[in-house]
Design brief:
The structure holds 2 protein chains of 2 kinds.
Chain A lengths: L6 H10 L14 H15 L3 H12 L9 H13 L4 H40 L4 H30 L3 H8 L1 H25 L4 H4 L1 H17 L4 H21 L1
Chain B lengths: L1 H16 L10 H12 L2 H14 L14 H12 L4 H32 L10 H37 L7 H22 L3 H21 L1
The chains are: A mainly alpha, B mainly alpha.
Chain lengths: 249, 218
């Protein structure tokens, strides 16, 4: 399938995918980064400079997806170009996959994997383990999933090309998200426990603070993300007010 | 000299948030630990980072969204926190929350500038050199933005925290209580994002029990 592509070109395209959001902008979003990642492969595929320029131009066009799962589209686009697919086919393929790759990735990585691993690290820290243990555990666990997902996505794209839809359905990323949510909920409970009884925890601060934390937690549970800013503003104003009070005492 | 080192670290960590890698060294917990190590206060660095991480648990680095920038905010907060006394911690965290919003606004300007740096496909064919220069130029611009935002933050926040910390009137227990109450909102939001308490209450309660047991054993 990708006979014209050397392992070096594919490795280079994969490594460049780590910079895919480097020029994120409101006009083409990931377009510049996508074209930049495609470059090593396009250089091998096209010997004719006019065809190369035309291909580069279509990959510069507006595109957006989750930066890790974007590698599915990247690998598939490399395969399509190497097979000589026409411009419209490549364009339509990218248009079709960008939405699903965005929503699947946002749900799996940003809304579950990242907070889940952060919860693990914070729990380790608040139950009294040294800070560096929490930091190393966070970086290791997160990046095993992160780099693994990028690599898997690129391979799936390269192997299946236009047929990635079936492969993504079989991979059941939505199902993985649901399973991870259970583990993340367990870790969330663990963090609450650690915040309660850990060193400098809420229990040591007193029952009033435990009650206030429960109210804040309920506000987040019922109001959702809209509760975040008022809570942060309240803390900032309280700290500023108490500081001002301290100056006059 | 330290401010230069810290600003360069802020620039590098800002890059990780969206432009390069996303290995999450830009998360407050990691950024706090690295900055703490850089300024010779590793324990204070992790403490500030952990509290800001709790607040920013629900802030995701999605490409198109506007979010508080945790990396530069944490670097600024840790640089200002000094030895990490409870008062300094509270002031540094509050300053970090404010600075995160300002830094987040600077990302909006960066993205507008990026549109001018990368070739516009509507303007016709472009060269590979022009594309590479535009893309890598945007990465460099993000680094410079991170350095400037961190430098300005340390210049403003460090003397402010230093000037107020001596008169901080709240005892340590209540100070930590105040900071954790604010962060508890993130716990509720996450519980909602994961599908709600009713759906995952067993897992939540098991986790709570394990942590209580673990804390007792440790």
């Amino acid at each position: 399938m990708t006979e014209r592509l050397s392992r070096t070109a594919l490795t280079s395209a994969f490594l460049r995918s780590f910079l895919i959001q480097g020029s994120w902008n409101y006009r083409t979003m990931l377009g510049g980064g996508f074209a930049f990642a495609m470059l090593p492969a396009l250089r091998r595929i096209f010997t004719d400079s006019a065809a190369m320029d035309a291909s580069l131009q279509r990959h510069l066009e507006h595109f957006n997806a989750h930066p890790y799962l974007c590698n599915v589209a990247l690998g598939a686009a490399v395969k399509l170009e190497s097979e000589g697919a026409d411009a419209e086919t490549v364009r339509r393929f990218k248009l079709a996959v960008r939405g699903p790759l965005g929503s699947l990735g946002d749900g799996l990585v940003w809304a579950t994997w990242l907070p889940g691993v952060s919860l693990l690290a914070l729990t380790l820290y608040w139950i009294g383990l040294p800070g560096w243990v929490a930091v190393i555990a966070f970086l290791f666990v997160y990046n095993v999933g992160h780099v693994g997902l990028r690599l898997w996505a690129f391979r799936v794209g390269l192997a299946d090309g236009r047929e990635v839809g079936g492969r993504l359905a079989r991979a059941d990323l939505g199902g993985w998200t649901s399973k991870l949510q259970v583990v993340a909920s367990l870790l969330l409970g663990a963090l609450v426990g650690a915040m309660l009884v850990g060193a400098d925890g809420l229990a040591a601060a007193g029952p009033v603070w435990v009650a206030l934390a429960a109210i804040a937690c309920l506000a987040g549970l019922f109001v959702g993300h809209r509760a975040w800013r008022p809570a942060a503003v309240t803390v900032v104003v309280a700290v500023a007010g108490l500081s001002a009070l301290g100056l006059f005492l | 000299m330290e401010i230069v080192l810290v600003s360069l670290l802020g620039g590098l960590l800002a890059l990780d948030a969206t432009s390069v890698g996303q290995f999450m060294t830009s998360r407050p917990l990691v950024a706090g630990a690295l900055t703490g190590w850089a300024v010779g206060e590793p324990a204070a660095g992790v403490a500030v980072g952990a509290i800001l991480e709790l607040y920013l648990l629900v802030s995701y680095p999605t490409g198109g969204s506007r979010f508080p920038e945790g990396s530069t905010a944490t670097v600024v907060a840790v640089a200002a926190a000094g030895t990490g006394s409870p008062g300094a911690l509270a002031l540094a965290v509050a300053a970090g929350l404010v600075w995160g919003q300002l830094a987040g606004a600077s990302i909006t300007y960066l993205r507008r500038a990026n549109a001018r740096l990368v070739p516009d496909p509507g303007q016709g064919p472009t060269s590979t050199r022009r594309l590479a220069a535009g893309h890598l130029g945007a990465v460099l611009l993000d680094f410079v933005r991170g350095v400037v935002v961190t430098f300005a933050g340390v210049l403003v926040v460090r003397p402010l925290v230093g000037g107020l910390v001596a008169s901080w009137p709240v005892p340590p227990g209540a100070t930590f209580g105040l900071l954790l109450v604010g962060g508890s909102v993130s716990v509720g939001i996450l519980l909602r994002d994961f599908g709600g308490f009713r759906r995952h209450r067993t897992a939540f309660v098991v986790g709570l029990a394990l942590a209580l047991l673990g804390a007792r054993l440790l």
